[in-house]
Every structure is written in structure tokens, then in C-alpha cells.
């Protein structure tokens, strides 16, 4: 059914499947996402930004602990210096992650449905598991830029098997910050890693192993998609999204699948499965039933 997906991912580093989610699934996920802020912390709020670094150890710890929990990350422009909100709570979050696929019933249902398993089967996964998931808000006016990156920077496997599943729950347009890709860039290796700091004395628990590469602006191709599409993202393709400058939000749900049968998951990755909570398997031995 989707044999062309492998060809397209091999050529471009990404592929789009239109109308992957039903209208009911879109509405249910959107409703759940719009209510996530109600469980967000009212103190010790943590900013998520790909354009600013922070050396604060408590931020790193909060991020690390989100591997097995649902944690809440605020937009840089949403918080005053004292941690109080600049905007309404429903517009303050940048993202929620990274265990929505196991700890929230609405997102678990989407993540483990048979259509996802079918795609994994078509892509040749033998024992796929979901490593992490996120709800990304991209709220109007405040939704921050996501700088150019590769998912393998954060979820490195050898050989590279990680595939991102990215679902816009609202139309993703040029104005509200749709994804942009450098076609074919997945063939150029892993440019940068984001890892657990081997220096155990440092207050920086997470570090990049090298400076960010500079990618030519003209290389990026915007990929606007309608709500309910599924964008498949190779772990090494360079992609980004610009700040939402419009008056329309761009909510999206995303998760990352790795093949636990055919690759080694790096022990230096920021996100590590725990003995009592291993990555949840979609199926074994390419049997989707």
C-alpha cells in the first residue's frame, strides 16, 4: 500500500501521507492537547527553547526525568523573570513530553493504532518501539522557532533506524510555522549529538558534542500539510520550523520509533529506557496482528 514511502524517504529523507488520521481522531487529540495546560505546574516552570541554552541543573534534571513522565515546557516569551505567566495559560506551553504515548490514553491510542504498525511493517521494522512522544503547540504569535536539526542528534542508533511520525492537528502553513526540510540531507551522516555529559562534576547534565552546523537558507524546502496528515521523518534529515507569526495555532503530535531488533541504541543519548519502563513495543517479528 505504501511501498513508495521507502523510495521517497530514501531519496528526500521524509514522506507525507495525507489524511492519515480521521476527523474524530484529530478532534479528540486536539481537545486533549488544548487541555494539557490544566495539569502544568504553577511554580518552577521550565522553558523549552532550541535557540537559547541554559546551564541550570534543575532544568536538565526536569528534562531528563521527562523520559518516563509527562512534563511541561513553556515558551521563552511566556514567562516573566519571576516565573509568572505573561500570557494566558492555554497559550503558554511550547511542548509537553515525552511519555504521552504511554501515559495519556488519547495519545496512546493514536501511537499504537494499526495504521502506525502497518507503516512500520512497510518500512521493514522487525521489533519497533516508541522511544518518546511530544505534543507541540506552536501557539499564535508566541510559538517559538525550532532551529535546524536532525532527530539523530537526540535519538542516535547504529545503524540509523529512528523514524519520526509527525501529525499536524491543525493545518501547518508557511505563516504558522510548517516543517521545512533540506531534501537528501539524511545521506550526510550525523552532524551533531546531544548527550549526557560524561563530566559528572559539571552542573550541565546535557551537552552538545560540537557547535551547531550552519545550513544555507536557500536549501530549505517548506512542506505545508493539512490537519490529519502523517509526515515520516528520517532521523538524519535536516529540518526546522520558523516562529509562528500568524494568529492561528499549529498544534501537532509527534513520536519517534526505533527498531529494537536491528540496531544499538546509544547509551549516551539523553533519553534512556528504565528497567521498569522499557520502550513500548508496537509488534514483534513484523506481525501486526
Automatic annotation (TrEMBL):
Gene3D superfamilies given in the database record: q2cbj1_9rhob like domain (2.60.120.620)
Domain of life of the native organism: Eukaryota
InterPro entries on file: Phytyl_CoA_dOase-like (IPR008775)
Keyword Protease annotated: no
Molecular functions (GO terms): metal ion binding
UniProt cofactor(s): Fe cation
Keywords: Iron, Metal-binding
Entry-linked Pfam families: PhyH (PF05721)
Homology family: Belongs to the PhyH family. PHYHD1 subfamily.
Protein name: Putative peroxisomal phytanoyl-coa hydroxylase
Lineage of origin: Eukaryota, Metazoa, Ecdysozoa, Arthropoda, Hexapoda
